[in-house]
Amino acid sequence: MKTYADLGERIQVRGERSRTKVVSGILTVIAILAVLAPMGNVPGEAVDQAAQGLLQALEQDREILVAARIAGDIPLDPGAAAWHKAQPLAVPTYPQVTTAPMERRPQVARVHLRALYNDRDIGFLLEWDDPSPDLTENSSQAFRDAVALQFPIRYGEGIPLPYIGMGQKGQAVNIWHWKASWQADLDRGFVDVEDAHPGMVSDLYPFAPPTPAAVPRTATYDKTFLTGWGAGNPLSDPLRKSPVENLFAEGFGTLTSAGHSALEGRGLWQGGLWQVAVKRAMKTDAPAEVQFSPAGGLFPVAIAVWQGGAGQVNGQKALSAWHFVAFEGVTPPVAYLRQLLWAPPIRGNVKAGAELMRTLECYACHVWPGAPQAGEIGPELTYVGGIHRPQYLLEAVKAPDAHVVPSEHYMDRTGRTKMPEYDPDTLASAPGVTDPEQAYYDIVEFLRTLK
Q1: Of 47-51, 123-127, 156-160, which gets the smallest average pLDDT?
Q2: Closest by alpha carbon to 440, among 410, 403, 386, 400?
Q3: Based on the domain organization, do 122 and 87 belong to the same domain?
Q4: Parallel, antiparallel, or unpaired: how do β-strands 64-69 and 323-327 relate?
Q5: How many alpha carbons fall within 13 Å on the CB side of residue 268?
Q6: Cross-strand partners of 90
Q7: Does residue 342 lie within any of the structural domains?
Q8: 3-state secondary structure of 382
Q9: Concatenated DSSP letters for 53-107?
């Protein structure tokens, strides 16, 4: 059995470090210090050098995936040789413990992502370890494997990233959701009642012969008399053409199917490894869908993955932080790269941040490994350093009212957070705090270790 776990790749996941990584990181910091200041009117070559320095820094943090440019069509065959033209990025994933229904059991630790593009289309290959395929959901306790890519509808210089958990109001996301059950429907035929319960006969009169040996296939009925299909529910459609559903969301509880999809995909499980290829035209006629342009330099992407055999469904999943896809041969805008790079003006101290979390009694609202007690008002912080970027953590610590996770536990009836506001005066009064701004960065550095 050949899986990514067997390949012995040196991947920095869950805080692992190597001497090579540290030395390389130091050299990168030295290289980019000169380009963090405003560029002003400088020659194009200098701008390109600045962009490359910033890109290298993001690559050192394993946040950048480079989409390889190819001349031919992007293949849907996950085993096609063209996919090897793109270097994979190992994207760490973490259990979703922010809102119910939660998943506390780590199942999939990482997904390897590749990207290809040509003049017309863009495609992605996702690969992850799974000991057995789960292909059907033909009973109330049967759950299928699945994987999803999430993109902000709007992105670029000056535009903040949406909340990682399916966006937020006013900052929508487009989600491409591949389902193993839909793939099985296309490969083997729509999984019908007759497949789940062979020999079952319904809606027939036994005294009115001849009695058929099996129920007619769903696709042969008039959909007027099949409620789900007739109402346009994509889960009930026996004639679907793609295993990938096109979805939109503006936060938890807002997930909506587009009802149509220009997405193409194909998934293959072999030897303990799922490989899923997904592609779409870079530009579509639907303004609500994410649009891609090499001229923009790069775009954000996040991943979610479900392991059906572990009972994972809906919010019970593993998810990643935002990562970024750059186009091979294209120099991204320097200003956007600066916006994405974590280069804090103050260096935080992990130990001081951990102590501040206790001193400020953050455990009254939150829970994290090592906390004196478990609070229930605020979101759980066990994996917060893995799924959130440090810029978001800093904003959320400074202004929790502006970053409310939609939940009855965290919000009152007016939509205002139940969490107290820790302003500089609050931090200044904490024992041992002489610089409130330093305290913010100390807390962020501690939160970054929670993975």
Answers
A1: 47-51
A2: 400
A3: yes
A4: parallel
A5: 11
A6: 112
A7: no
A8: coil
A9: HHHHHHHHTT-EEEEEE-SSPPPS-TT-GGGGGS--EEEE-EE--SSSSP--S--
Instruction: Give me the residue label for tokens 């400020």.
Output: 360
Tokens of 289: 């869908």
Are residue 328 and residue 370 in the same domain, yes or no?
no
Residue that is last in its domain, among 313, 337, 361:
337
Measured CA to CA, the distance from residue 175 to residue 152 in angstroms comes to 9
pLDDT at 423 over 70: no
pLDDT in tens, 326-343: 999 999 999 999 999 999
Identify whether 325 is part of a domain: yes
Please, are residues 101 and 362 in contact by the beta-carbon 8 Å criterion?
Answer: no
13: closest CA among 111, 114, 150, 147? 111
Kindly state the DSSP code that residue 154 receives in the 8-state scheme: S
Characterize the bridge pairing of strands 318-319 and 298-306: antiparallel
Strands 244-249 and 173-179: antiparallel
37 falls within a domain: no
- Structure-token match 């007016």, residue found: 414
User: Residue 62's pLDDT is what?
Assistant: 92
Which pLDDT does position 406 carry in this prediction?
61
103 versus 42: which is more confidently predicted? Answer: 103
Assess contact for 430 and 364: CB atoms under 8 A: no
What is the tally of structural domains in the chain?
Answer: 2
323 in the same domain as 261: yes
Q: Looking at the predicted structure, is the pLDDT value of residue 313 above 70? A: yes
305 lies in the same domain as 365: no
For residue 13, the model assigns a pLDDT of 38
Residue 199 has pLDDT above 70, yes or no: no
Clarify whether residues 90 and 155 are in a common domain: yes
For residue 64, give the amino acid letter. I
Listed residues 311, 337, 363: the one ending a domain: 337
Q: For 69-108, give one letter per residue: b (16+ CB within 10 A) or e.
A: bbeeebbbebeeebbeebebbbbbbbbbbbbeeebeeebb
Q: Please, is 385 exposed, middle or buried when counting C-beta atoms within 10 Å of its C-beta (0-12, 13-18, 19+)?
A: buried
By residue range, what is the domain housing residue 255? 62-190+239-337
- At 227 the three-state DSSP class reads helix
pLDDT, mean of residues 86-98: 96
Same domain, 371 and 321: no
